[in-house]
Amino acid sequence: MDEGNSDDESFFQTKALFVQSPTRPITLDMIPQDGNEFIHKSRLEENCVVRPNELSERQRLKHHGRKMAHEFIEYAAKLNTDKESLRKKFPLTVELPEKDEKEWCKFCLGSEMYNEIYEDEESFNEKEGHSPLLSIIVHLEQNMVKSVLKFLRRWLKAIGMNKSIGLWLYCLLACLEKPIDQNCLKLITRLKDTCKKQLKICEESEKQQLHIICEIVDRYFGAY
Fold it and tell me: Which first-to-last residue range defines the signal peptide (predicted)?
């Protein structure tokens, strides 16, 4: 390579690695507005030694949410990489509902929560909901995953966050295959907005799971 080409290569490498100085203070709680701010925030997180006893309650919840989001990323990557082998290893053993919100509510959450969500309608006999086991979730087509996520958001708005809703959200978000399209991005952005609104009015027991879902949407799907 001649000297001119070498200089050009060095120039473009320098430009590629150049990060502009931030135009506002960078904090752990901020939402990055562009790629530069995202890089600065990531560097801050990497360099920050977090001492939980020095954090406020809100900061502790966000810190825990970030840790869980990193675990989620590993889980989702493995799930989507091994989905075919997982289908063989964990065959479907239950009958899945059709694309019907109420039937999925019965299936996922069981009778008690179904009756709470649809309180103005006729209740049905006592029935336990299903956990989001691998023998179920790896057999769901992408359109069904997105539909049930929509249902879960509605149920979250109706009765707040609980363990069952949180588990189903976690597992179905992991089932989404990337890259996601704009409609799916809108769906999970609305989910995050619902979680943030719920955080303002929720019981103490709901906060941890709500923070986890928000961090997953931010860090895995980039829905800032």
Answer: none
